[in-house]
Design goal:
The structure is a homodimer. By secondary structure, chain A is mostly helical. Helix content of chain A is 68%, strand content 7%. Chains A and B meet through α1, α2, α3, α4 and α5 of A and α2, α3, α4, α5 and α8 of B. Chain A binds a DNA duplex through α3 and α6. Chains A, B: This is DNA-binding transcriptional regulator, MarR family.
Chain lengths: 174, 174
DNA sequence: GCTATTTATATAACATGATATATAACATGT
DNA sequence: ACATGTTATATATCATGTTATATAAATAGC
């Protein structure tokens, strides 16, 4: 019976065996795994910043001051998450927040001087190392993978999944 | 200026432009997006079950009764998450939990009669429709994408990311 | 100018990942 | 038989996604 126990599931992966039916769960799991593995590398640059917040800093560096809503749109996440992340980054002094002059509702988020230095150092150091490590992991098919991901994202924007499944049902009725 | 605002970021995606450096964040985002889009389809089968919990039911259906630890290993997630999910599924009557006879620490989780019927119906209905919708979304490259994902998962198991980045640093020192 | 509607964002609440730890059961060694 | 170490799992805590909503500012329409 101990033999059965070990054989039963010692190296099986249910998500893998379920294929495209659980693609979302599998991508999420792998994404979280990668973020967790990348975190120690990123944290070598002080102050430690969550892996998921580095793109926010990169967006500010690239575009200059942005509103909460703009950041949410650029990063493809919900607004309250950005509010929270910005609050945390402001707390450690990497970003500064002001109220937009032309619209009192808008909050303008920008890199602080410390934030500017942080991003510059990250570009030359940890970001580069992370990219290389991930490229090594992808063993040459990185570009192809990114293209597939892009294609799925574009496909979802064009036509949501529920619309694809609805058509399937109509086919069944015919 | 309104023109500038719109042009600034109307369709740009920071994660996409950052490429492999933010692969984890991007995979996580897409995975959560897919789970969210799949949820309404799955919820057509009563009772509603979270997208992330369907694989747990599939694992029980395939392997029979499993312990909490075995489920965590099969699904590649942490044990407390399984404890919670099992509690929820037991709450809606799809799984049953007993104590293993040969080891009083182990909890044996199995599909209830309602759970067996649920899985059977899902197999013929919503799981099939989800798989087809996702395959449609992948536009023919589904198998290739799954292979890439598998390769990354295997690559992480063989050699963690931090080990890959460490070697990079040693190269820099030389 | 006033009213109704829309918009930007903070806040609340919740779901779902994780790590850490307490507790009990089991295994090992003397 | 007893002490020590290991293991399975519930529980606590936290981080990070989300949706919903309240509040204030801005916009649209008359």
């Amino acid at each position: 019976m101990i033999y059965n126990m070990l054989n039963k599931n010692s190296s099986e992966d249910t998500l893998r065996s379920l294929g495209l039916m659980t693609l979302g769960s599998r991508l999420k799991r792998l994404g979280e795994r990668l973020q967790a593995e990348v975190q120690p590398i990123l944290s070598e640059l002080a102050p430690p910043v969550a892996a998921g917040q580095h793109p926010l800093l990169a967006a500010l560096s690239k575009h200059g001051a942005l509103t909460v809503g703009e950041l949410a749109a650029l990063l493809g996440v919900a607004q309250p998450g950005i509010t929270r992340a910005v609050g945390q980054l402001a707390g450690i002094g990497l970003v500064a927040v002001t109220t937009a002059a032309e619209d009192g509702r808008r909050r303008l988020v920008s890199l602080s001087p410390d934030g500017v230095a942080f991003v510059a150092a990250a570009r030359e150091g940890v970001w580069l190392r992370v990219e290389k490590a991930v490229a090594d992991l992808c063993a040459g098919f990185g570009d192809e993978l990114l293209a597939h991901i892009g294609s799925i994202e574009d496909g979802l924007a064009r036509k949501p999944l529920t619309a694809r499944a609805v058509e399937e049902r109509q086919d069944d009725l015919a």
